[in-house]
Design brief:
By secondary structure, the chain is an alpha+beta fold. The chain has one domain (14-169). Helices cover 30% and strands 31% of the residues. It contains 1 helix and 8 strands. It has one helix at 14-67, and strands at residues 69-75, 79-84, 89-95, 98-103, 111-115, 127-131, 146-157, 161-169. The longest helix is centred in the N-terminal third of the chain and has 54 residues, at 14-67. It is rod-shaped, with a radius of gyration of 30 Å.
Length: 183
Amino acid sequence: MRFIRYKNQFGFTLIEIIVVLVILGIVAVGLSGAIIYGAQSFIFAREANQLSQKAQLAMARIKREMVDVKSISTANTTSIQYTLSTGGEYVIALSGTAINMQGINPAITAQPLIDGLASGNGGQTFLAYQKADGTAWATVDSINDLAQIQTIIVLDFQGSTNLTFQTTINPRRTAVPTVPRLN
C-alpha cells in the first residue's frame, strides 16, 4: 500500500495528538492541586479570622466592664462578680465552652459573650488578678490594691488547634496608677 502525500496537506499525526493530550493532562493535574490548596488556605484563613473577631469582641466587652469596676465580691480563675461605678452588679463566668455575663440585680438570664472555647479553656487560666508588685490579688485585699486583671480565652479551631487570645485590664477606680512603669 502506498500513501500519497500532497504538497499543501497539513495536519497532525496521531502520536503528536496523544503527546499533547498527555502533557495537557499533567498540567491540569498540577493546576488542580494548586487550586484545591488555595481554596483550603482561603477557608482556613476565613475561619481563623472569624474566630479572631469573635474573641476580640468578647475581650473588648470584658475589658469595658472591668475598667470601670468599683468593687469585687468574688473573684477566682473562672468567674468574677463585681459592681460598676454606676451601681450595676454583674457576673462574668467561664461555663463549659462558653463565657457568660449575667446581671445580679435584677436577676437576668445569662447572656453568652463567646462560645466555642476549647475544653477547660485549653488548660489556661481564664482570669488572673495581680497587685502592682506582681503578687496575686484576692478579694480579701482592698480593691485599691488591684493593679491588673489578665484575661485569656482559648478557642477551639477546627477540632485540632487552639487559638489563644490574651488581654490585660487596668481598672481605673483603684489607687494603683495605670501608667506603664519603665523599669
